[in-house]
Amino acid sequence: MATAVAAVAVVATTLSVSGGPSADLVPTGAPGTALVEDPQVLVISLDGFNPTALRRLGRSGAPNLWRLFDEGAGTLDARTQVERTITLPNHTSMVTGRRIDRKKGGHGVTWNDDRLTPRTVQKAAGHAVSSLFSRVHASHGSTALYAAKTKFSLWDRSWPTAIDKVVIHAEDDAQVVADARIDLVDDDRALTFVHLGSADKAGHASGWLSPAYLTAVERLDALVGSVLTDADTAPELADLTVIVTADHGGVPGAKAHDAVRRPANFTIPFVVWGSGIDHADLYAINPGYRKPGRKQQPPLTGKQPIRNGNVANLALDLLGYPRVPGSIFGKVTPLEVE
User: Does the chain have fewer CB atoms within 10 Å around its N or its C terminus?
Assistant: First the structure.
């Protein structure tokens, strides 16, 4: 079911769990092995998150985000997509496991607004495109999307029967997290995707790593902390695994992030936390990946860095479900977290 949203709209849509034309009706491909008995995966994307903010704030200023890295498997040196360092294209790579360039098998989403043409990811790519949501749905798992930007309605239109609940609170991270927390405890969803946009908003308004930006990160840290408290105390979340990453960073002092050759734009965090996952550097436990330093390695050329596009197949591996057909990130070389 497609959902049209205005710039400040709040959308809460519960969708049918009966398959659909964009769902993968027959799961194929090698599934992962779930680390826990009844796995749930929560993906949190911190829009516009420059990992230098964590170093600036330290553990006293961002204790909850640092907890993820201190207890989980992570890196502050992951990468965006090569073609664009903007929100919607990179998020679409997160859930499809594809690069952006449609001519090279990518998903084709190059824009970053609420346009309705192309209407779906499939129209943008010119061919069928599966997703993390449709793979979970095909394996009889329930999914939800919570977002702070209305442009994510693109996913609702692209995989209409695969996202069982869609909630968009424009520019209201606190409400996004409040609703997601209730749903995480009340509904046994296999996958929940949460997008938070306040760091990006502060970066555009005041500059990346500005005092206002760092204040926004502190607030994000508190929101993430509320989720971790639930994971610590709610029996329903005993088997929750949390993946936190970003769509792009931002150059200190700049108010835009579209320069694809600037390391501060394409360097992002990536961390996995939860039951069965020990503290580790993700590159140290993944010899099939290469820590890139200040470089942005082209896709499929040499050993790759960890990218935000690894989210889709990592989440599916954690759930024990087959990987996304047509994906490239983490399909041949799975990202290990233990």
Answer: C
Q: Please check whether residue 253 is in contact with residue 14, taking contact to mean a CB–CB distance below 8 angstroms.
A: no
CA distance 338 to 193: 22
**For 140, left (φ over 0), alpha (ψ -120 to 50), or beta?**
left
The pLDDT tens digits of the residues spanning 220-276 come to 999 999 999 999 999 999 999 999 999 999 999 999 999 999 999 999 999 999 999
Q: Is 320 left (phi over 0), alpha (psi -120 to 50) or beta?
A: left
DSSP H or E stretch at residue 82: none
Q: Does the predicted TM-score (pTM) go above 0.85?
A: yes
Token duo for residue 83? 């073609």
Query: What's the CATH code, domain 10-319?
Result: 3.40.720.10
The 10 Å CB-count burial string (b at 16+, else e) for 265-278 is bbbbbbbbbbeebe
- Non-local (6+) Cβ contacts of 311 within 8 A are 43, 94, 95, 97, 132, 243, 245
List C-alpha distances in Å: 192 to 70, 143, 147, 292, 323. 23, 6, 11, 30, 17
Mean pLDDT of 45-56: 98
User: Could you tell me where the beta strands, DSSP code E, fall in 275-333?
Assistant: 280-281
Tokens at 254, concatenated? 């700049």
Is 160's pLDDT higher than 70? yes
CA atoms within 13 A on the CB side of 135: 29
Tokens linked to 296: 């942005």
Give me the phi and psi of 158, to 5 degrees please.
-80, -35
Rg value, the chain, Cα: 18
Q: Which of 13, 318, 274 is nearest to 135 (CA)?
A: 318
